[in-house]
Amino acid sequence: MEVKIRNVEPTAVKKIDELARKKGLSRNEYLKNVIEDFSILEMKDNHVDRMEKQLVANTLLMEKTSNTLDELVSVLKELIDDE
User: 78 to each of 48, 70, 81, how far by Cα in Å?
Assistant: First the structure.
């Protein structure tokens, strides 16, 4: 797919060319890599956000389960002691 960008400041283009040259790439190759890397990082950020939310939900569920098990153990101990 082709992407065109117009009206970019000349100083920005010079800086892009300098960065591309340092990596041994053409301007096109350099910008292609930057755009692709950016999109991948954005997807990773979204994935990390979803994973963090899931981790919080799992932690809450584990805490509730632990509390319920503690209550169950307490009830069982009372029943055993009553015998």
Answer: 45, 12, 5
